[in-house]
Specification:
This protein is an alpha/beta fold and 330 residues long. 33% of the residues lie in helices and 20% in strands. The strands form 2 sheets. Strands 1, 4, 5, 6, 9, 10, 11, 12, 13 and 14 form a 10-stranded mixed β-sheet that branches. The longest helix has 16 residues, at 282-297. The radius of gyration is 18 Å and the shape is globular. The two termini are 22 Å apart.
């Protein structure tokens, strides 16, 4: 038995305000949701019918139990999720200020460390990671030991030369400066896993951390020179570009009225994974992922807001975009 997708890294309880358009000091009530980028990506892909699992750690507390139940609710296998004694499950608060296009995050329970940074290399199911059609991790997982060594071990279990046709290793360049001493430290850690990566995804700032500043094309070319097969550079209001050694594709944004922009990137990631698994042309993968991200940006939460394939297809059709051949989703 193998998974379509295994993600590894951050998990938390997202505490999002029910009061939109006000700062946290004025919020009167909140809702709680599953959060953490790699976990959200696993949920997003599961919504498209893919068999997913996440490798992570929680606290041994009620919030940890809540995250297990949420993963099960979304159809994500939680066999590689365990508790860490003495640490609390992290909580992430945000304010939702759509008029200002600001969604500031406040991390609690992550300093000096968090359970998901306690993943140890000897605990990994290396065979499952090796066999998964896609393995997804983030740069944040490299910011602290023992997580960094565990991530490196997971990548070393999937050397590029050992991948089968249709297998991919994805690195989300996900650079969050509050978790690092310096950009140089982050770049040094990225350099250890990049030789195993076949797909890299990030915005210009994140790509600059990985391979240096430059134009989107220059950054994509450097990623390709490092051996990556598909370099995805997010262009902000201009959409997103994907580049291979033989192809350059740009997908224009799918305009929506943004309510909360925080989960859009994870929805993009899960949809991108689904397109890779389905074997679609790169242009259609990018359009599908763009539309999936737009749908979540128009909704309040992250994991709970991840769209089905049918919802993404409906938005593409409504906007006159090419619709990939799909099977109905749950």
């Amino acid at each position: 038995m193998s998974f379509d997708l295994i993600t590894m890294g951050r998990i938390s309880v997202d505490i999002y305000p029910n009061d939109v358009g006000v700062t946290l000091d004025r919020v009167e009530s909140f809702g709680k949701y599953l959060g953490g980028s790699p976990s959200n990506v696993a949920v997003a892909a599961a919504r498209h019918g893919d068999r997913t699992a996440v490798v992570t750690r929680t606290g041994q507390d009620p919030f940890g139990e809540y995250l297990h139940s949420e993963l099960a609710k979304f159809g994500v296998d939680d066999r590689y999720v365990s508790g860490v004694a003495g640490l609390q499950t992290p909580a992430t608060f945000c304010a939702i200020l759509p008029e200002e296009q600001q969604f500031p995050l406040y991390f609690y329970g992550r300093f000096p460390t968090a359970p998901d940074l306690q993943i140890a290399a000897e605990e990994l199911d290396v065979d499952a990671i090796r066999d998964a059609r896609i393995f997804w991790s983030t740069v944040t997982g490299l910011c602290q030991e023992p997580s960094a060594s565990a991530h490196i071990a997971a990548h070393e279990a999937r050397p590029r030369t050992g991948l089968r046709d249709g297998q991919y290793t994805v690195l989300d360049l996900d650079y969050r400066p509050m978790f690092w001493e310096s950009v140089d430290e982050a770049r040094a850690q990225v350099s250890q896993v990049l030789p195993h990566v076949t797909v890299a995804i990030g915005n210009d700032e994140e790509c600059a951390v990985a391979v240096g500043a430059g134009t989107p094309d220059e950054q994509a070319d450097r990623l390709l020179e490092a051996g990556v097969e598909i370099a995805v550079v997010k262009l902000g209001p201009e959409g997103v570009m994907a580049k291979t050694r033989t192809e350059r594709v740009v997908s224009a944004p799918v305009p929506v009225e943004t309510l909360n922009g925080l989960g859009a990137g994870d929805s993009f990631g899960g949809a991108f994974v689904h397109g890779l698994l389905a074997g679609w042309p790169l242009t259609q993968i990018l359009d599908f992922a763009n539309a999936a991200g737009a749908l979540v940006a128009s909704r309040l939460s992250c994991a709970d807001a991840m769209p089905t394939t049918d919802e993404v297809v409906a938005l593409l059709a409504e906007r006159g975009r090419l619709v990939p051949e799909t099977e109905a989703s749950a």
